[in-house]
Amino acid sequence: MLRIAVPNKGSLSDPTIAMLREAGYRSRRDGGRELVIRDSENDIEFFYLRPRDVAVYVGAGTVDAGITGRDLLLDSGANAREHMALGFAQSTFRYAAPIGTAQTLHDIAGKRVATSYDRLVADHLASQGVSATVVHLDGAVESSVELGIADLVADVVETGSTLRAAGLEVFEAPLLSSEAVLITPQDREVPAGLDTLQRRIHGVMVARTFVLMDFDVPAQHLDAAVAVAPGFEAPTVSPLHDSTWFAVRVLIPREQTNSVMDRLYEIGARAILVTSIHACRI
What we know:
alpha/beta; six-stranded mixed sheet; five-stranded mixed sheet; 15 strands; globular
């Protein structure tokens, strides 16, 4: 039975549960506190762990794979590797200092950097040849400068509003662009059965990213319509009872739905219908 570690709380937990549910697996009930979910039908077992611990368990080989953040994986130092990016919980990891006090990393040499990601920050500073003191905090690092225990911070940034409220501004390029990732042990073969999990997750990601579009188009405008909506590989084209028209079915990126519909209508397409995708295999 495949053993998978998943985050039990925090910003990673609910999206992970939702993705696994859409992929056809048993998962925690909303608000549930189960620590282990066994899905015998799919020959898989899910272990709900602290997000920071997922990489540790995967690296130790006590579970076959896990879902966590790229930032947490790199900060853990665990013997685990990124296997597949999952496209949610996206964020950037940035340095932030009091307004006007730093523009480059070399401006912080000899200063104190507060963070919850000690290893990640220390490794980055070392790679850039900057000597600074890393101050570990478990959370709310943006308050550390005002309270006098640090000169700047390094933290996950989504909108930056919390940092601005604390009188801080980001500087330098991001240390890291992070998102949820599927991870596996570093020095072991990919576990048996993981390919099925991966295909299912990929199917969910495609279903979330694309819609199915159907439309009718006059024969003389078919090539122009296909140029506007070429599809994932190629559209399905079928003749209608009226031989001067064709029916077309094609995958369209969800975010382009309305612009593609407008362009197709201008070409002469009619009966343009859009359907959400529940699941797929590409």
